[in-house]
Amino acid sequence: MRHLLDTRTLTREAAVRILDTAEEMADTQHREVRKLPALRGKTVVNLFYEDSTRTRISFEAAAKRLSADVINFSAKGSSVSKGESLKDTAQTLQAIGADGVVIRHPASGAPDRLARSGWIDAGVLNAGDGTHEHPTQALLDAFTMRRRIFGAQASRGRDLDGVSVVIVGDLAHSRVARSNLWLLTALGARVAFVGPETLQPYGAREWPATVRHSLDEALREDAPDVVMLLRIQSERMHAAYFPNEREYARNWGLDDARLAALPERTIIMHPGPMNRGLEISSAAADSERSTVLEQVANGVSVRMAALYLLLSGERGDPRDRLPGEAQPSRSTGKRTEQA
């Protein structure tokens, strides 16, 4: 695997391979010594232009448990605050010998630009770009679904064929929703987007998802195996997308009454951080059917798998190359332009 930039282009086979590798990684995390030597001698840079707690710590833990050297780069307090471009930052990382770059950026498409640019030879892993995608979040969500629905021992090699997933909330600004839609669809799941019209993504009716505006209707009609609540991203909102928080909670929040009405098999997910009382009640967040903390724990195993597949073997396999990407020379390993 050369880069991991999105889930839209992941095939079922590639996705299952990552999830199965994550199962192997999860098995090692119950040992007394959890570190593996798989990436010893490799350098992973966490290049974060946006604030993050769960994702950055998760990637740092994943890289260290694979014995990689980790450099944490924050845009705040760096030369970026002085106007340094992504190109100049990338070339600096190239000079220090980065093997992998985990990038979170407020601009949609920044990881793709970095991967295609030729500025750096490192593998690039998208940790969230604008309102575009967040592929490892979707992978850890799918990993959690497989384990909860089929059990850890029976989940290997399985997709999510026939599983019904209802994703509720701020879909317009959510890269998590987009990545989950493409990944879950590739794995055979049925996805419904639920939220007010103002928070539906542009073009959503042409996507492979059922679009609904009533959460109660979705819970009744879609008979979900999974209900995923999304955070209201007020920092990305520059207009009034719904009347007020009380109105939103009444219409689209998973409150105690809706929790009690859910089928017994239904699990509850949230990518965090949660706004309790708005998207989800405390009773729902803390219930036995909630997977919120499992998602955090599983994120380390999934990111270990992604980093391992990205950095452990020979990179530059033609099957894994981006369209239009320069080919490595067989004799020198240097990049040459495609004919």
Polypeptide structure, described:
By secondary structure, this protein is an alpha/beta fold. The chain is 35% helix and 14% strand. Strands 7-6-5-8-9 form a 5-stranded parallel beta sheet, with helices on both faces. β10 (327-328) and β11 form a beta hairpin. α2 crosses α11. The chain is globular. The model is unreliable at 314-339 (pLDDT under 50).
Structural class: alpha/beta
Approximately how much beta-strand content do the residues carry? Answer: 5-15%
Gyration radius, rounded: 20 Å
The top-level CATH class of the largest domain is Alpha Beta
Strand order of the largest sheet: 7-6-5-8-9
What is the assigned CATH homologous superfamily of the largest domain? Aspartate/ornithine carbamoyltransferase
Coarse morphology: globular
The number of distinct β-strands equals 11
CATH architecture of the largest domain: 3-Layer(aba) Sandwich
Largest sheet: 5 strands, parallel
Give the topology string: H per helix, E per strand: HEHEHEHEHEHEEHEHHEHHEE
Mean pLDDT: 89
Number of domains: 2
Multimerization status: single chain
- End-to-end span in angstroms? 23 Å
The percentage helix is: 25-40%
* Low-confidence residue ranges: 314-339
> How many alpha or pi helices?
11
CATH topology of the largest domain: Rossmann fold
Pathway: Pyrimidine metabolism; UMP biosynthesis via de novo pathway; (S)-dihydroorotate from bicarbonate: step 2/3
Keywords: Pyrimidine biosynthesis, Transferase
Family: Belongs to the aspartate/ornithine carbamoyltransferase superfamily. ATCase family.
Pfam families: OTCace, OTCace_N
